[in-house]
Amino acid sequence: MSIKRKITGTDADFAFRKTTDITPEFLKKHHILGLVLDVDNTLTTDENLTPGEGIPEWVESMKKAGIRMVIVSNNKAERVKPLADRLGLKYVPEGAKPLKKGYEKALAIMGLHHSRVAGVGDQLFTDIWGAKHAGLRSVYVSPIAIEGREKRFILFKRKLEKPFLPDKFQDN
């Protein structure tokens, strides 16, 4: 871990190339019993209501292993609810990431202590920083896709994040 990641709070505890690379065995090895999941480019592509490739099966495998999951998104309920319903997950809309508000609601829903939960997401300055700020461990996943030009603010954030991206990804 580099000093620049440590100083900025963008030092993800773990990094995976895809959300579906995270396994129940890996989580249990690290004593993680719950996940706070981001939506856009973590579970599906931006603005899409259909889960990404392999996501429904991954969610089912996590449930079977006893891993609790809650979606926390900065999007409004009408964006998050259809995806959450398809995956059979509870959700917190307008989570105000990177602030603690959404993470605290998710912890209450899961009934878990923050030390046993990890936040999963594709953006360092919202998902990873937010998880760490809330006392959770953090799991960075590479974005499913890069946003189009109409998402200028997110593209700008991605340029700012580039020097802080993880160097190493977990081997599964």
Could you give the topology of this structure?
Elements: H1 3-8, E1 14-16, H2 24-29, E2 34-37, H3 55-64, E3 68-72, H4 77-87, E4 90-92, H5 101-110, E5 117-121, H6 124-133, E6 137-141, H7 152-161
Parallel strand pairs: 1-6, 2-3, 2-5, 3-4, 5-6
Structural class, please? Answer: alpha/beta
Number of strands: 6
CATH topology (fold) name: Rossmann fold
How many domains make up the coordinates? 1
- Strand residues, percent: 5-15%
What is the distance, rounded to the nearest whole angstrom, between the alpha carbons of the first and last residues?
20 Å
CATH class designation: Alpha Beta
Biggest sheet overview: 6 strands, parallel
Q: Give start-end ranges of low-pLDDT stretches.
A: none
Mean pLDDT: 89
Order of helices and strands: HEHEHEHEHEHEH
Strand order of the largest sheet: 1-6-5-2-3-4
Give the name of the CATH superfamily: HAD superfamily/HAD-like
Tell me roughly what share of residues is in helical segments.
25-40%
As a whole number of angstroms, the C-alpha radius of gyration is 15 Å
Quick tags:
Rossmann fold, globular, 172 residues
Folded structure, characterized:
The chain has helices spanning 3-8, 24-29, 55-64, 77-87, 101-110, 124-133, 152-161; strands spanning 14-16, 34-37, 68-72, 90-92, 117-121, 137-141. With 172 residues, it is an alpha/beta fold. It has one domain: HAD superfamily/HAD-like (Rossmann fold), CATH 3.40.50.1000. The chain has a 6-stranded parallel sheet, with helices on both faces. The longest helix is centred in the middle third of the chain and has 11 residues, at 77-87. It is globular, with a radius of gyration of 15 Å.
